[in-house]
Structures are given as structure tokens and as C-alpha cells.
């Protein structure tokens, strides 16, 4: 039997709320099924609330208060949790963030950076310092914590079926130190081995392909129309027009066809992680730089042609 994962109540207000909900339910001797009985919601829905991954609707909170005899505690606090969740992510990502918890399948294209839910703290900090250099330590810590609340998307068995296509440049031209990159890629490979998250690498010589600009997230649901979310540096857009979403889905299918097979891609990720850890990547860069400098100073080289 798989050990149940503990909830870190310090991670966020939703996590604290969910942990308290689980404690009260178990203290009352009730299973998830027993606690949800008589409501319009399912067991998985309540489980995700307990883990801090989904908002508590007011009608469900009132139901839980009656069942657990908690004197209106969860109904009074569910609005506080809603506001806290709003502050977890950038405003333009909020709708997609909420939908993510309901998604059955997630398909992602990442041309420059590793997907957020797979990022470890050192990588996240580097990105925050790059894009928001004025952020103080308290704000950086808050953003790190909020980013790490999304790890369940890829890391937990209950998460949606996920397919991620990464550009090979992410492996070859890292935006962080070699040691940080080694840890990141080892983590990505380990997560891929543990569950049904599937990575694919789009090789550098793939030529023209769909999604040549911007990261993209496609989400499908059990009882809702699919949506597409695309994001730039400081903005994002959620698209739910069925015709446009279908166009993006077809383009993503062509992107996957252009990418390397999953097993080959995973081996590339593991090999790259080993290269970064052993210093091979740094040595290759040194040799490349040396060769470039030698070319520049040869007769007829770039320096002479530039006269």
C-alpha cells in the first residue's frame, strides 16, 4: 500500500486550510466518501481541497461544517482561501491556474524554459531574479513557494496525464549554473520515470515547426470544453474558442510528430544531466570558445574580413 503523502500546511493558506480539513475529518472517523456523501461533489474533489489544490465552494464548505460539526469554520474561511489562491500566481495566469486542477490531460510546449511545475527552488530563484530584479527576499520566497505548490501537476499519481515537448536548446544552452541544471534535469528524469508524465525533445535541427513563438498549455477536461493558454514574459492569454483551440491542438500534434520519441528524449535528458554534473558541458564550451578565437585570428578569418 502506498504511503499517504503528508500535507505541508506552511506552504500556503490553501494547504493550511486543507490540512485542517483532513485533520477534522479523520478526527471524526470519516472517510472521504462518508464526508462527501449527500453533496453534489466527488471524493477526488474533496481530496484535492485537502491537499490545497482546489478551491472550496461555499455550498460544499457549509455541507462539511454540518457533517463535521465545525460550527461554520470552513464556510467562514473559504473566502480567505479564495483570496489567498488569487495571490499565488500572476493575475493573467489565475484562470488557467484554477482550470489546471480540473484538467484530465495537459499538453505543454516549452521553447526556452523548463515548465513551472518541474522547476526546483534554485532554478525558480534564478528566473525571478532575471525577470523581476527588484523583488526583495520576502517576495522571492513567496513566489518560490507558490511555484512549488504546482508540483502535483507532474509529480503526483492523481495529477492529469501530461505530455511536455521541450526544445533541445534548453539542454544545450542552460540559463542557470551547470550544477543547478544537473539537479534540474535529474529531477525531470526521475519524475518521468515515476509516473505518466511524458517528455519529448524537439531537436535543434527540426526546422520550421508549429509554436515557434511562446510557451503553450493545452488542457482537456472530462465535462468541459478544452482550452489553450499561451504566455509571454509579463502577460498571458486564455483561449476557449473551440475552433481556435482545435487549430492549436492539431498544431501540437504536428509538433509532437517532429519531436524525438519519448524514450530517446528521456535518455537525452539523463545524458545531459550527467554532462552538467561531471563538467563535460563546461569543457565543451571552453573548447568551442578556443576554436572560435583561433578562427578569428587566422589569416582570412573574421578579423581580417572585418577590415
Account of the 3D structure:
The chain is of the alpha/beta class. The chain is built from 15 helices and six strands. The protein has a six-stranded mixed sheet with strand order 3-2-1-4-5-6, with helices on both faces. Helix 1 (13-27) runs antiparallel to helix 5, helix 7 crosses helix 8 and helix 11 packs antiparallel against helix 13. The chain starts with 12 loop residues before the first helix and ends with a helix.
Number of helices: 15
Overall spatial form? elongated
Report, as a whole number of angstroms, the end-to-end distance: 73 Å
**Amount of helix:** 40-55%
Number of strands: 6
Taken as a percent bin, the fraction of beta residues is 5-15%
What class do helices, strands and sheet pairing give? alpha/beta
Q: Order of strands side by side in the largest beta sheet?
A: 3-2-1-4-5-6
SSE string: HHHHHHEHHHEHHEEEEHHHH
User: On the 0-100 scale, what is the average pLDDT?
Assistant: 84
Rg value: 23 Å
Q: What composes the largest sheet?
A: 6 strands, mixed
- Counting copies of identical and different chains, the oligomeric state is single chain
Give the uncertain stretches in residue-range form.
303-307
